């Protein structure tokens, strides 16, 4: 099938590449000429393990094309998928400007009936509104030319290819059997369970899934904080909870809160949408509030030991919102780095892939290290914000190159026992402190 994909961010690019991999002819469209030029050279503009190789393979096979010329791409396509960003407005609602712009471009480009599939995360009712908008844009002569379907995306950054090629479910929200049949045909080669429902339900599946996972993380962080106060160990607690298959062990890792371009935005968007509808989602409100506070857990603990950060050398390991990505959007590291700098600390950061993006945010205010060892040397304290494998596997003796081996670990990279054996002063989330005397 001939498919156009609008937007070459995580959703659009991974979807387009995977659809080309299974045999469809795909035209990826983006308004950013530099991105398209990069993709035409076979380079991925985003850091995503394995993606570049798949782009090159599908491109060389003649099935994956990149263009800024939306009119040509949309005119040729039997199906147009939209994967543009729907960022957060200042009031927490979703900003649909890019989505509406693409719809206007589609309406001016198509010369025959077309199925438009919305993969972007959009508030419930958006697909219905888009269907009406298309009718208005297309006028009487082309009325009903566009059928709109909702097909939310569930891929995670860092595992995007696997999540798409081996998805646990494909959700199709349509109001027409014909649209459902076309989407079923597109996805059949993936051999994954396809769930068909109406458009509003499909839109809600996406928000409810992300918000449930965010809630699960905030819940476990709440329990971790209580574990610290009452002397329980969150690792032991989550191993006991996760063994119950009704709960499950995934997304039970405590830490300094969830970040990224999805959970923070989608929790706020659903909460906002519910308020607009006259209903308060108390559970989601609580998840958001817990997450806001959780981001500052390490600083709170560190302040008891280091009342003034001014002039102190602070080592920071990890900046991205999670391992496996160079993305810093809503990363808990950012407000913490900001605070350390505001208080006059001399901050040295190492992250395996996130430093170029970090430099775009902080410029010369931070020192960017080439290795774990280079930032730890002579530091007064070390903060860990991301659980990269290279940190989890490091030789803990390296912390003894610091002025004091004082480690604040926001992602529980080491076991309490290992920290004890290595002679560290160690604070982690929801577990016993090591070298307790230092922590007043
Ligand atoms: C998330 C969802 O997991 C995807 O299913 C969804 O498709 C995607 O959003 C989206 O809407 O596009 P992603 O934002 O890439 O994917 O990252 P996650 O792996 O879900 O992690 C989000 C945040 O939660 C990270 O900051 C991570 O460190 C944190 N987290 C995750 C925890 O603190 N504890 C956990 O146990 C798991």
Assign an overall shape: elongated
CATH class of the largest domain: Alpha Beta
Bin the strand percentage.
5-15%
Uncertain stretches: none
Q: How many helical elements?
A: 18
CATH architecture title of the largest domain: 3-Layer(aba) Sandwich
Main sheet: strand order: 3-2-1-4-5-6
What is the CATH topology assignment of the largest domain? Rossmann fold
**How is the biggest beta sheet arranged?**
6 strands, parallel
Overall structural class, as computed from helix and strand content, comes to alpha/beta
Radius of gyration (Å):
24 Å
Share of helix, binned: 40-55%
First and last CA, distance: 66 Å
Number of strands: 14
Task: Give me the CATH superfamily of the largest domain.
Answer: NAD(P)-binding Rossmann-like Domain
Mean pLDDT: 96
Bound molecules: uridine-5'-diphosphate-glucuronic acid
Number of domains: 3
Protein name: UDP-glucose 6-dehydrogenase
Catalytic activity: UDP-alpha-D-glucose + 2 NAD(+) + H2O = UDP-alpha-D-glucuronate + 2 NADH + 3 H(+)
Family: Belongs to the UDP-glucose/GDP-mannose dehydrogenase family.
InterPro entries: 6-PGluconate_DH-like_C_sf, NAD(P)-bd_dom_sf, UDP-Glc/GDP-Man, UDP-Glc/GDP-Man_DH_C, UDP-Glc/GDP-Man_DH_C_sf, UDP-Glc/GDP-Man_DH_dimer, UDP-Glc/GDP-Man_DH_N, UDPglc_DH_bac
How would you describe this protein?
It is a single chain. The protein has 440 residues and is of the alpha/beta class. It folds into three domains: 2-197, NAD(P)-binding Rossmann-like Domain (Rossmann fold), CATH 3.40.50; 206-294, N-(1-d-carboxylethyl)-l-norvaline Dehydrogenase, domain 2; 297-427, Rossmann fold. It has 18 helices and 14 strands. It has helices spanning 10-21, 33-40, 51-60, 70-76, 97-109, 126-138, 160-165, 177-187, 199-230, 234-242, 263-276, 282-294, 297-303, 333-342, 355-362, 372-376, 389-392, 416-421, and strands at residues 2-6, 25-29, 64-67, 79-82, 114-118, 146-150, 170-173, 194-197, 313-317, 346-350, 367-368, 381-384, 406-409, 425-428. It has a six-stranded parallel beta sheet with strand order 3-2-1-4-5-6, with helices on both faces. It has a six-stranded parallel beta sheet with strand order 11-10-9-12-13-14. Strand 7, helix 8 and strand 8 form a beta-alpha-beta unit. Helix 9 (199-230) packs across helix 11, helix 9 crosses helix 12 and helix 11 runs antiparallel to helix 12 (282-294).
